[in-house]
Fold each of these.
Amino acid sequence: MDFLRPASWEEALAAKAEHPTAVPIAGGTDVMVEINFDHRRPDVLLDLNRIAELQEWEVGEDTVRLGASVSYTSIIENLRSELPGLALASHTVASPQIRNRGGVGGNLGTASPAGDAHPALLASGGEVEAVSVRGTRMIPIDEFYVGVKRNALEPDELIRAVHLPKADGPQQFSKVGTRNAMVIAVCAFGLALHPKTRTIRTGIGSAAPTPIRAKEAETFLAAALEEGGFWENGKIIPPAVARQFAELVSGAANPIDDVRGSASYRRHALGIMARRTLGWTWDEYRGNERSAQCA
Amino acid sequence: MRLTFNVNGRQQEADDVWEGESLLYVLRERLGLPGSKNACEQGECGSCTVRLDGVPVCSCLVAAGQAQDRDIVTVEGLADQAKKRAAAGCAGGACGTTLDEAKQWESKPADGQSGEASTSPLTLSPIQQAFIDAGAVQCGFCTPGLLVAADELLERNDSPSDADIREALSGNLCRCTGYEKILDAVRLAAARAGAETAGTGA
C-alpha cells in the first residue's frame, strides 16, 4: 500500500490522476473502518488532511461554498443560520469524536444511503464541485447519487466543496434510531421550505438504494400551499394536507427489511417524520419557533 | 514508512509503519503506550479517544500517516497536560498550552519501567483523581477514553451542565454501565476546579 500526502490541492489532483484507484481519506471515519476490518485493501491511500482549503468555507451573497473536509463540528458551530438543515443533520452524526473528523465530502464520497448529510443536502439543493486535472464540474446534488454507495464522480475526480444556497426559509431534519448518539439512521428525513421560490424540497435517507427526494410530495405540498394562499396568510396547514404530504413521502420511499428495521416500519416512520417536520418548519415560517428542539 | 510526530509533548518516531495502520496501533504496539484501548475499531466505543492537535478523535480511525508532524495527547499525558494547564492559569479565559510551553513538556518514560522508578511521585490529573474518588472505574476498559473526553470538556467548559456532560461523553461506551458514577466524577472534577479558582480569588 502507498500512502500519499499531497501538500496542496494541485498535488492531490495530480496524484489522483496518476492513481485513479487511490482512495481519498480525510476524516477516515468510513475508510479506516473498512481497512481495520479488512473489507478493503486500497493500493493507494490519498491523505487530504494537509490541504487546508478543504477545511474552509466561504459564505457568499447567496450560497455557501463548504469545503469537503469541513468537520461536522464546524458546521454545527459556524453555519447554523446559513445551513440550518445541514447543521441539524450534522448534530445527529455519531459522536463528538466522529463529528470532529468527518465532513460532508466523505459522506458524498461514500454515498451510503444512510449518510446523515444527504437528506439535508437534497432538501437544500446545491451542487457538488468535482475537480480533476481536466477541470471542474458542478454536479447537481440530485444527480450525484447513482446507486448503492455509488456516486457520479469520475475515477480521477476529487470533491473540492459543496455549494449550497443559504437557507431562505425554515429547514428541519429528523432521524430515527435506537438512541441519540452513535446511530446509523433507521431512516431519516430532511425538509426545506423555500419561500422565495414558493417551493418545497425534501430528502429521504436510509429508505431506498440511494438518498432520494420525495418529488410528488414536494409538488403536492407546493401546490396546496399556493392554492390556499398559505405563503401570504400564514394560516395553519390543514391536517388533511399534512396527511396527504406524509403519505406521499412514505410512498416515495423504497426501503428494505434489514437489521435496523423493517421496510414497513421505515415507510410508517417516514410519514410521521414528514408530518412533524412540516409542522415545525411551518410554525417557524409563521413566526412561532417551537420551543423544544426534540425530534 | 517512518512516522514522526509529537506524543504527549515529546517527539516520537516509529519505523516500518504499515500504510493502512491506525494511529491507535502505532501508539499501542509500536510506542508501547497501551493506555488507549482497542475495542471496536470502528469509532463506536470511544475507548481509543486521544487528542489530535487538541481535538478529541478516535485514534482507531486516524490513519497513522495522517498523524505525521501532528500533536497527540493520550491518557498517559493527561497528568502532564493538567499540570501545564494549571501553571499557565486561565487568565482572560485563555486556557491551554503555548507553543513554548509545549516544547518544554516532559512526559514520563512511556514504558514506566526504565530502571529506577521516576523520582517524581505518581501524580494524577484532576479528572483522573475525580474518577477514582467518585468510584467511576469498574473494569476500567472504557476509562482512558472517557478521561480524555472528559478532560477536554472541562478544558473548554469549566461548569458543564448535565446535558453538556452527556453530550461530550456520548461517544464513549461503558459496558459495566457505570455511567452515573462517571457523570458524578465529571461533576466532581468541575466542582473542585471551581472551588480552587474561588479559593485563590482568581
Note: DSSP finds eleven helices and 13 strands in chain A.
Amino acid sequence: MIFFYIFSFILSLQADVPNHWSYIYEIHDRHEFYQNDEIIVKPKDSWQTLFSLTYIDRDITAVKDCVFFKVPGVDSGTIKIKTINLNDKCDDYLLKNGEKEIAAIKSLKYSIKENGIELTFIKDSNKKENLTIQLNKKNKKLQNLFGLSSAEYKSAKFILLAPKTNLKPSSRETYLKVGSECLEVNDDCEIKSPSQCHRCEKGWYEIPNGCSHGPKYCGQLSCGGKNQPACRRGMKWQKSNDEFDCRTNSTFAYCSRGLSIQCEGRKAYCR
Amino acid sequence: MLRSRPEIVSKKERIPVIPEKLFSQVIETGMPAILRLWEEGDRYFPKGALFCDDEIIHHKNVGGSYYQCNPHFWQCFWQGGFAKYPSIEIEFFGKKYHISAKASFDPIPAYSTQPRFYHLYKKNNFSLNTDYGYVVELEVKELPGKSQVLLLTDTCRDTYLPQRSYAYGKVADKREDGFIWDNFDRNIFIDKFYVTNRQLNEWKVLTNRSDSIEKDRAKWPHPAMINLKDQRDYCVYYGKRLLEAKLFDAATMTPTDLKETLPTKVYRPETPWQRDLSKTFLGIARINPDYQLTPLDCQLAEVQGCNEKYFSTDSATWMGVHFGLGFYPESFENYIEPKKNLKMSSRLFHPGSEWHELGVLSNWTEEQSKNLPVAFRCYEEVIE
C-alpha cells in the first residue's frame, strides 16, 4: 500500500484544465454531503454533481461549467464537464453528454477552498492527476467602504471575459413582474430567501416594517405620499433598544408632512 | 519509518513557456497600468494639442476628473489622439512588452465613423451584478495573435455614504433636533458630480435615440438639463434613483465627529466646509454686497460673478461628493417635504443670497427653462 502511494506520488501530473477555467470567479452547486478531501466512494455507479464553476463569456452572459462525477462501482469512474447557463440547474444535465470527459478513474477527492478548488484523481493505470482551479475574483469582504464606488462594491474594477460559449439565454432568465416581492421578510424579521431584487427590471422599493431589512418589491413606487408605503427612517437614530413594531413604535418610518402612519400588519403606510 | 523527501522547488519563478500562459500573465501584470489609464485619464492628458475632435473638445474650464472612467478619453488615447503609436509598456521577467487596445467594435455613428476601442455594455440579463460598463479588447505587440476581452466598470462615478445618523433640512431653533434619520444596514452610493451631457448621450445611444444626442462636444462635460421625468428615467435605467434631499444633506453636512456614528446631537452645518456661514465669504457677502470674490471662493462654491468651471474638485464634501453649494440648481426627490425639491444655491445668485445655505430648498415645476437650468444626479442603494 505504501508502495502504491509513493508510486502514485512520483507519477502525479497536472491534468489539462479547459482554457476558460482561468476566468472562473465563483463556485456554485457544491455537493451537499461530500467533505473536503473525502475520497468519493458512494453511491456507487451513480452520477453526482460535485460543484459548478461560474464565469462570464464575451457576450457578457454568466455561464457555469457543471462538474459531474460518476462514482466508481462495477464500472470505473468518469468526470464530466458540461457548460450551461448560470440560472439553469446542473442536476437537469446530469445524464446528458458533457463537453469534456475524463474516464477510467479509480478514485477521486476534491477540496474547495477560499481561492479555488484542488481536485485529485487516480486513474485505472495508477496515474495520479491534479486539477487546480484558481478563482479569478478573491472573495474579499471589504472592511472600509469609505470612498468606495458602487461598481467596485458590487463586482470588481474589471472583469475578464472568457471566449464565447454561444449558449442561448436561459428560459429561467426572466424579469420579475412589477409589484412582485423580491425580498421576503417575515414578521419575525427573518429573510426567507436570498434577494431576487437583481431580477427587477426597473428597480425595487421597500415597505418599512421595523426590521433591519424590510420586504422589497419590484418597480418604482414613491414613498411617504397618501396611500403609499411609508419611507424608511432607520432604527438606530432613536438610540433605543426598543423593538420597532408598527403598532407600538413607528418611528422607523415617516410620511410626508401632514400625513400619518397607519399599519397593515407590520408594514407602515401613509394615510 | 519513511521520511518524505524534501521538495525540490526552484525559488526563482520562470517565464511561462506556454504562449497562452505568457500572454495572460503579461496582461495580468499590465492591468494596474491599464486601470490607471482608465481611472486616472487626467494624468495622461497631454499638455499640447489633442487630435480627436470627434471625441474631446477640451476647454481649460473642464477639470481633470471629467477624463476619469471616460470612454471618449479611452477612444481618443487609443486612436492616436495623444501619441501616434499609443501603448502601455510593461516589464515582465526583464523583457519589455507593449499592451494596446484593439479597435474591435462597430462605430457609433452618432459620435464618429471610426471603429470603436470600446463597446457600451448595459445589463440586459440579471446574471451579472454590474449594471453597465465598457467592453474593451487588449493585445500585446510582442505576442501576436492573442487578445483578451474584458469589462471595465465605472469606478469613478459615485461614492459611499457612511452608515450613521443624519439630519435633514433646517430647524427654526438650533436647540431643536428636527428631522433625524439613519442609514444603518443600507449601502448607499451617491454620484460625485452632476449627470453630464456625455452620460446622457450614452443613455440615448443605448436606447436608440442617437438622433437627439448633444452634438456640441464642448458641451459634453456640462450638466445635462432634462425634465424631472427624464431625470428619474435616466437614473432608473442605470439601476439608480434620482437623489433625495435628505441624502444630499447627509452628503454635504460634515459630521462633528466622524468616529461617533450615533452622536447625542446631530448638528446641521450651514456650509460643507464650515459650520457657521457667517464666517465664510457667503456670510461676509450678505453683510457687504460689494464683496469681491476670490478664486478660492469660486472653487468652494461657484456663485454669481465666478468664472464657469466644470468638474472642479475643490468643492468636495466630507464624503466625496461635489457642488454642495453654488454651481447649478439641482433637483431632488423629497419625500419629507415634497415641494422642497430644488437646491437653488447656484451660479445664478449673488454670493450674498440667502439661497446659499445647506438645507435651504425651493420648489421646481419639473420643466427646464432658460432662466432656471436644473442639474441632477443619481444615487444607488445596493442590497448585499
Note: Chain B has two domains: 19-152, 157-384.
Amino acid sequence: MISPYIKTAFRSISRNKLHSTISITGLGVGLGCVILLLALVIHEKSFDRFMPDYRNTYLINHGTSARTAYPLAEAMKMDFPEIREFFRFYQTSGIRLRDPQNKLVSENNFGFSDASIFSVLGIKFITGRPAVSKSEVAISEKTASKYFRDVNPLGSVLSVKLNDTFIGLEITGVYYDFPSNSTLFPDFIADIELSEEMFKKFQRSLGEFSDDAKTSLNWSHSDYYSYVLLEKNTDLESLASKMEKYKEYIQDERIRDREYSFQQVSRIYLGSSEIEGSFFSRRGNANELKYYGAVSLLILLIAITNYILLTRAGTADRLRELGTRKVLGASRFTIRKQIILESNLVAVISLIPAVIVIFSGIKFVNDTLGTTLTTGIFKDPCIWILFFLVMIFTGTISGFFIGSRISRIPSLVLLSGETSRSTRSGRWNSSFLVLHFTIYIILVSGVMMVSKQVKYSLSNFTGISPQNIIISELNSEELKSGFTAICNEMEKMPGVIKTAGSSFIPPFNAFLPVNLATTEGEKVRFDGLIMGEGMTELLGIEVIDGDHFGTFQETPREIILNESGATEYNIRAGDNFMGFMIRGIVKDFNAHSTHSLIRPMVILQQNPSRMGLLAIRTDGKNDKAVISRLGELYSQISPDEIFEVRYLTDQIRDFYRSETDQGRIIGVFSLLAAVLAIMGLFGIALISITKRTKEIGIRKVNGATIGEILYLLNIDFIRWALLAAVIAVPVSVYLLSEWLKRFAYNTGLSWWIFVLASFSALIIVLLTVSFQSWRAATRNPVEALRYE
Amino acid sequence: MITLKGIYKYYDSKFQRTFVLKDIDLEISEGEFVTIMGPSGAGKSTLLNIIGMLDEPSEGEYHFLDQPAHQLSEKKKVEFHRNFVGFIFQAFHLIDEMTVYENIETPLIYKGVKSGIRKGMVAEMLDRFNIVAKKDLFPAQLSGGQQQLAGIARAVVGKPKLLLADEPTGNLHSGQGKQIMELLSQLNSEGITIIQVTHNEEFARFGKRIIRISDGLVLSDDIVSDTNEPN
C-alpha cells in the first residue's frame, strides 16, 4: 500500500528538479542548523558526567569562589569518614619547556594535581603511572604524540621552567586525553606540591606588595580546586557545618567568614555564573544555551513554513493528479496520508544537505562559541533518535498543513485546475511571509547593533589611547634586571615614541583589589594597578592635579589616584593619605572592559627591577623593525626565553570576544533567515503571479504598461514587508536595549539601524518579486489568455 | 438504476440566481447507453457530475440503486466511487508520474484488492485493450488515443456498474474517436451502463438513447432507432 506512493513521490520530486532542489536544500539547511544546535545543547549539558561516580563527586566552593586553600581537601579526608577520595587541582599557562629536540616551546595547559585525580575522573593510563613526587610529570596522549611521536616517552626528562629556572621532570606515564565534555583539560599533570613554584613566581611579580613570599604551601594559598568523592547519601549541609572549624586557619579576614558549599560536578559547567575563579577550567553559559535553543526553534519554524510555502507553490500542477485520485476512489484520508508521506520523504532526502551543514558547522560553532563539540557526539544513539524525531516532526507537520487544505478541495475544482481562488490560503501565505521578514529584520538589526557596539567599545576607552602600543612580557630574571637597559636601547630606535614598564597594563580583564592600610589598622579598599614610571604618560592618561610618577623611591611611597577616588576621599596631590604620598590625580579612565563602570582607583608604583611587562608606544610606521630589534635584545639578554609581543588593541578586542562571536552567530542566522525568506518569497510570488496570469493579460490588452504591471505585482509584497517592519522594530528595540544593558558604556540605539534593516528587507522583496514579475509583465498577453 | 427527481442546480450571486439545471427528471435503467447532447453551457457536464457524485444538486432527489444519493455521507461517496462508477475524461487525466500499468492499478489499490489478484486484473485489461506493450510507458510517451485507451482501462478495471464519459473523444481525431466509441459500445453490450456527454452527432448515435438539453432544461429524450445506427 505504501510503496506505490513512494515511487510516485520520487518521480514527482525528480520531475521538478529546480523546485525540488530549492525546497530540499532549504529544509535541509534548516534541519541541519536545528540538529547542530540541539547537539550542542546536549553536549553542553553532558559536561563532567563521564566521571564514574559523578553523582557523588563534588567541587568545594568557598563563598562565591571555586577556589579553596591548599590543605583543605587533605584535612577533610583525615577528619571526615564521608570523604572517600579527594584531589586538588591547579593549572597554569605560558609554561616554557624544552622539547626532546631541545627547542624552547610554550605550553598552556600545565596542571598540578594529586594522583587520585585519575581514579576519581576515571581517566586511564595508556602506559605508566601518575606523577607522585616533585620531580615527575604525567602527560596526555596528545602531548606524547606531539613531542615523542612513536618513541616511548617513559623515563624521558622534560626540562620545564616554572619559576625562572629550568628543572627536570621525569615522565612517569601517558594518560588518555580528557574527554571533550570535561571541564578540566590538562595536557601535563605534575605533582600538586610542585605548584608551589608558581606561587613563588606570582608573589615575585607583585614584588614588595605581597607579604608572604617564599613560604611553603599553607592555608593562605587559596587558589586550588578541591574535588571530593563522598559516600552515597552524605548530608552535605552537616558536612559543610562541620567544616566551620577550618575558618580559624584562614588569615585573610575578607574571606574568612565565607561558607563552604558543595557543587556537584555535573553542575559546574553550566551552573557557575555566580562563582568566581574558573580561569583554568571550561565554563559554559546556561543563558546562552537557552538562547540557542530558542533560535533553533525559530529556524525550524522558518524552515517548515518555508517548505510549506514552496510545496504549495509546487502543488499547483499536482492538483489535477490529486483530483484524479479522488475520482478514482481515494478518500480525504488517503490523500492526506499520501502528502504526509511525501513530505516525510522530502525530509529524509533533506538529511543530505543537513548532514553537510552539521559537519561543516561544528568547527564554526566551536570556533565562535569556544565549545568543544566533536563529531563523536553522533556516536550517541540519543542524538540519532532526536535527529529522527525532528525529521519526522518536520515532515509530518508540513505534510499535515499542505494536505489538510488540499484534501478538502472538491475533486471537481481540483480537476478543473482553477484552484487557490480562496483567499484563505493567501492569508496563510502572507502571514508566513510577514513572519519570515519579521525574523529577518530583528536578526539584521541585531547584527548591526552588535558590530556598532563592539566598534564603539574598541575606540572609546575613556582616558586611554590604546593605539600603537606594543607589549611584551619580561619573563626571566635577566630580562627583569635588564629592563632599564632595554628601554634605553629601544628609545634610540626611529618610530619609538616612549617606553615604560608595568606589572599590569590597562585595560585588562581581571581586577586587582588593593587595601591601603594605616598602622592603626584602618583600611580603605580600591581598585588597583601597579605601574612603573612613565606608564601613565605612555597610555595617554591625563593628570589633572600634581604629576605623573617620578623616579622610583622606597620612602615615602608615592601613589596616584583617579578622579573618582580623589573625590570620594577628598584628597589633593601632595596630601599624605594612609601613609602614602599622593603624587598626582589623573582623569578617570577605563582600566577594564566597558562592561563595568569606573571605580575609585589607586595606582601603586613598581620598582624598575621588578617590571613584568614592557610597553612601547610607536608612531605605527616602523613597527616591524621595532619588534625585531626588541627580539634581538631579548635573545641577547635571555636566550632561554620565547619572545612574544602583542598589541594593546588585541588585548582589548579579547574583552569583546563573546560579543563579537554572538555577532557572528547572529550574522550567520540572519543570512540563513534571509536565504530562507527569499526562497519562501520566491514561492509565494510564483503562486500569486501564476494566479494572476489572466488578469495581467487582460490588463495588457487594455493598454497597461510594463511599469504599471510591475507596480501592481510588487505592491502587495511591499505592503507585507512594511507590516513585518512595523512588527519587528518594536521587538528588536526592546531586545537590543536589554542587550545594551550589559555595557556600562554603550553607544545607544540609533534609528538608522532599524531603517536600514527594514530597507534591506524591502530591497530583497523588490528584487525577488521583480525577477518573476518581469517575465509575467513582458509576456505576450495572447499567450496568457489562451488558457481559457 | 438512476432516478433523478426535480433536480435543480443554481449559483447564487449577490442579486441574482443563475440556473444551470432546472427541474430535471430522469430515469436510467441498468444496461442503457445514454448520450447527453446540447450546446455549450447547457448543463450537460453538470448533470453528468451530479450523477457521478462529483457535484451536488441544489435541490431535488437522486436515487442510485434505490439509495438516496443526495443524502450520502462523504465516506459513502468514496465507497460509491470505488465500487460502482468509472470515469472517462476529455483530458484523460492520467497521472503523469505513473506508468500505464500503475495508472490502471490505482483504483484497485484504493478498492483494497490484494496484490496478486490486482496483477491479474490489470494484465487482463492491458490485454483486452491491446496496450500490453505500452504498460511501462508514461502518459507523456503515448498518443492521445492510446492515453484514452489507458483511461478507459483504468475506468473499467474495477468492474463498475456505471461508466461516465465526459466528451471522451473531445481531444481525439475522428479515427481514434471512432475506435473509442466502438469500444464503449462493446463494453455496454457486456452489461455496463454508460452515460456519455458529447458534441459529436455521429458519436452520439453510438448511444441507444439521446437526451438533448439546453439552458438547463431537457428538450428531448429519444430512443435511437436501429435504422439510424451508424455502420
Note: Residues 174-189 of chain B form the longest helix (16 residues).
Amino acid sequence: MKNINIVINNNELSVPEGTTVLEASRNVGVDIPTLCHLELPDFGIVNKVASCRVCVVEIEGRGALSPSCAEKVYEGMVVKTDSLKAINARRSNLELLLSNHPFECLTCQKNLDCELQSLAEKLNIREIHAKGIKMDYPIDTSSNSIIKDPNKCVMCRRCETMCNEVQTVGVLSAIKRGFDVVVAPAFNLDMVDTSCTYCGQCVAVCPTAALTERNDTSRVWRALSREREHVVVQVAPAVRVAIGEMFGLEPGTISTGKLVTALRRLGFNAVFDTNFGADLTIMEEARELVHRIENNGTLPMLTSCCPAWVKFFEHQFPELLDVPSTCKSPQTMLGAIAKTYYAEKMDLNVKNLKVVSIMPCVAKKAESARPELSKEDELHVDFVLSTREFGHMIKEAGIDFTSLEDGKFDNILGESTGAGAIFGTTGGVIEAATRTAYELITGENLEKIEFEQLRGLEGIREATVSIGDLDLKIGIAHGLGNARKLLEDIKAGKANYHAIEIMACPGGCIGGGGQPYHHGDQNVIKKRQAAIYEIDKATPRRKSHENEMVLKLYDDYLGEPYGKKAHSLLHTCYVPAEKI
Amino acid sequence: MSNVNLNISELDRDLLNELDIYIEATVDPNGSLINILHKAQLIFGYLPHNLQLYISRKVGVDAARVNGVVSFYSYFTEKKTGKNVISLCMGTACYVKGSEKVLHKLLKTLDVQKNEVTEDKLFTVRDVRCIGACGLAPIMTVGEKVYGHVKEDMVEGILNQYRGEE
C-alpha cells in the first residue's frame, strides 16, 4: 500500500493511504477527543458519522475545521490539532452538546461511566456559555429490559448503527429533524410495541445514559431483606470474566471465587451456577439434535439459549419457528429446577422462593417475564440483574471485591463442567453440544475435546465434524446481522447444516449488552473470550453429560433426558410476532 | 402510544391498488422510497401511520426508517389534509415581502389553525420553507397551482376559485 507524507503539529510522518487524521495522530502521541466515533473492526462495528464535531482539527489551506475521524490523509497535508482555534472549536462544540443536556450527573445511572462526562472533564469545561432550551421528552420505561431517555441523547447515532447495520433489527431511527429530532422507533412507538429484541447492543455503545438497562437492584435488595423469603441466585458464565472490570481488574480476570463470596455476603440463601443450567441444556439439546437427525426431523436445529435471538426470529422469521431447539435457556432451566427439585428437597414453599439471575445481558430481563417460562403461575426467574447492576450492588454494600477470598457454589445446582463454561462465548454452545452428541452417537469416549474449528471471532463460521459415519455440518453466527444471513440461506434452501449456534451479541455473551462498558475497545471482549476457554481447560470435567449433579437430577427427579418430565419442565414454544 | 393506528386493513383498498401498481412498476423499490412516498401522498392526500407501515413492508425498508424520512421532509404530512392544500412560503425572501401577513389573513378567513382541516374539509394551510421561486415572493401554492406576488387582499378571491368547485 502507498504511504502518504503528512505533518501533524510540526511532526513529519508517513502513514498508509486511507488512514484518517485521527488514526495518524496517535502515531505522534496526540490524543484527539472523540464522542460519536466507535470502531470495533473485528466485530464489524463501525460508526463514523462525524456528527458530534468534537474531534475537529485545523487543516492548512482550509477555512473550516475538519472532523479528524472522517478526514483521510493526503500527500503534503499539514494538520494542527493543538492550535487555540482547534481547541476552542472542540470546546464550543462540546458546550453546545452540554447546553441541552440534563445536569443530573450525580444521580445518573452512568455517573463516572459516561463518555460525555469524561469528555467535559478532558476538555476542561468549567462553564456552559450557550444557554438554550432543554429537551423535555417522556422517558420510555415500557419494556422490562431497556430504558430510553431521549433527553440524554447526543445524536451520536451509535445505537442506530448497532440496531440497523450490525443487528439488522431496524427499530431505531432518527425521527423528525433539527432541534426536534429524536432517536426512536417508528411513529415514536414505545419500545415494547416494536420488534426490539432487547439485545442491548444500543445500551452497550451509548456514550451517555440515553439508553440504559432497567435498574432492578432495588427489587433485589427488597427481596433479600424479607425474612420469609428464600432468595437464591445464579451467575451466567460470561459474568465471571468481566465483573472484575467494575473494580479496576484487567478484562478477562477470572473472578469466579470472589463473585461467589460477594453473593453470599449480599445475603443470598444459596448461590447456584448458570453453568449447571448450561450442562442441563446440553443434556436436552444434544439429545434433541440426535433425535432430529435419527428421525428425519427438522434440520438444521438452531440453538435457543439467547433470548434476543429468540425474539429476533419470532418477529423477523415467524415462518421458521420449528427450526430452533425447543430447549429453554440455561437461566430459565435452572430457575425451573430451583422452583421444583430444589424447593422439594429443601421443603420450601415456592411462593416464598425467589430466583435472581446475574446475567451479562439485558434481554434476559425480558425473557424472565415471558409468561410461558413459568410453572403454575410462578415465573422460573423473578429478577435479572446485569453484570453492571451486580457490580453496583457490591459497591453499595461496601464489599471490597478485590480482597475477597474465594468461595464455592452450592453443590446441588452449582457443579458444572468446562462445557457449561464455554456457553459464554460464540461457538461455545455448539462445541459443548458436539462433545456430548459425539459420545451419544458413537458410544465412544471423545479423546480430543477441543474443537478448534468452532472457535474464533469471524461473524459467520462453518465447520464439519466427523462423528462416526456422520459428517456433522455446523454453522455459527454471532451478531444478529450475521444470523440473518444464515437464516436467509436456510429459507432459500441453500444451507444444509445439521446444527447452527446463534448468539445475538458480537462475541457472544462475553460482549453482552449487560456487561461492563467496553468503551469501544474490542480487546476487552477478546480477553474475556480467552478467559472463558481458560476456565474450560482448568475444569476437571469438560463434558456436560459427566456433570454428576446433573446426572443425579435426572436419576432423582427428571427421569430420562428429553423424556416426558424433562419436556414439561425444560422445553418451551415460540410465538410468531409482527415486525415493526 | 395510543394514538398510533397501525391497522393496515383500514386503508382504502382502491387507493392501495393504485399505489401497488406504481410500486410494482418501480425498478428498485427499496432504493426509491422517496418517490414512492411522494406517490402515496398524492394518492391518499397524506401519509398516515398505517400507510407508512404498509409501504415499509411492501418495499422492505424498516418502518423506523420510513417514518424517519417522512418526518424529516416538510413536504410529507402525516396528518389528514383538506381537499386543497395551501402552502405558503415562509422562506427569507417571501417573509420580508410580507408572507406572514398573508398567512394570518388565510387562517383568519378560513377560521382554521395551521396544518388543520377547515370545517368544510376544503382547505389545509401549511407554511413551507423556500420553494425556489423567490422572484415571485411572496409565493403561495394551492395544490399544483402557483400564485406569485400574493397580497392580503387577494386571498378571498383565490379561495373563492376553489370554493366554487363544490
Note: The longest strand of chain B covers residues 84-89.
